[in-house]
Amino acid sequence: AQSVAQPEDQVNVAEGNPLTVKCTYSVSGNPYLFWYVQYPNRGLQFLLKYITGDNLVKGSYGFEAEFNKSQTSFHLKKPSALVSDSALYFCAVRDGGNNNDMRFGAGTRLTVKP
Amino acid sequence: DGGITQSPKYLFRKEGQNVTLSCEQNLNHDAMYWYRQDPGQGLRLIYYSQIVNDFQKGDIAEGYSVSREKKESFPLTVTSAQKNPTAFYLCASRVDGRNSPLHFGNGTRLTVT
Questions:
Q1: What DSSP character marks residue B14?
Q2: A33-80 residue pLDDT tens
Q3: Which residues of A touch B11 (CB under 8 A)?
Q4: Which of B34, B61, B97, B101 has the most CB within a 10 Å radius?
Q5: Short-list B72, B107, B41, CA closest to A42
Q6: Closest residue of A to B105, CA-based?
Q7: What is the DSSP string of A24-93?
Q8: How many other C-beta atoms lie within 10 A of the C-beta of residue A87?
Q9: Other C-beta atoms within 10 Å of B15: how many?
Q10: How far is A30 from chain B (nearest CA, A)?
């Protein structure tokens, strides 16, 4: 079965600095990878997804993610963080063999300080 | 605006009572899902439905029940058999396809005392 690890519970960055939120995955088949963001007491919002063949994926609000097959990673990045980026971020993976089984990481809380 | 509506936003119940959480979508999506979110644990799948009148158990279905009588609606009942029901419940839907993302409602926070 597939699984996702987000090794950092918390990431703190200063406004204007680049940010990285880490994600590693494990699947038996082709990975279908996603990033979501959650603001307090709200549902998750889709940020971006991995598209086969594109190692750098661009998404909403200036976020991008780098897919690395050899390291089985899909790290979320942004060149210049904003205070409004502060939220809970989830990485998720779906195994190509089971269309309905999406696994989520435990989440990483990003805090951007002014 | 198309989207997923969950109601109510906050729900309080006494232990031993069943409670039903509403989820309605107007996105014309076939597949719908219920997740439970607890602090530090990510999201765990309770039930999902790919088509009307059909649904499947997820990882933590014990103590929960669902129905899918209409494409737009996928209510979740938290029964008295659920041992630790206090949590944030999220409903989601998506179009068919392995690469399709989930669309989420804004959740219902259930507190059972």
A1: -
A2: 999 999 988 999 999 999 788 899 999 999 999 999 999 999 999 999
A3: none
A4: B34
A5: B107
A6: A43
A7: EEE-SS-EEEEEEEE-TTS-EEEEEE--TT-SEEE-GGG-EEEEETTTTEEEEEESS--GGG-EEEEEEE
A8: 19
A9: 9
A10: 10
Contacts of A81 (CB under 8 A, 6+ apart): A13, A14, A15, A16, A17, A18, A19, A110, A112
- Locus of tokens 């086969």: A52
- The answer to whether the beta carbons of residues A107 and A21 sit under 8 Å apart is no
And the tokens for A50? 């991995």
Beta-carbon contacts below 8 Å between A and B: 57
Going by C-alpha positions, the residue among A10, A9, A13 that lies closest to residue A113 is A13
Token pair of A19, please?
Answer: 């940010």
pLDDT digits (tens, 9 = 90+) for B49-104: 999 999 999 999 999 999 999 999 999 999 998 999 999 999 999 988 878 899 99
Q: What is the DSSP string of A21-42?
A: E--EEE-SS-EEEEEEEE-TTS
A97: which 2 tokens?
């063999």
The one-letter amino acid code at A45 reads Q
* A53 touches B: beta carbon within 8 Å: no
With beta carbons less than 8 A apart as the criterion, state whether A92 and A36 touch: yes
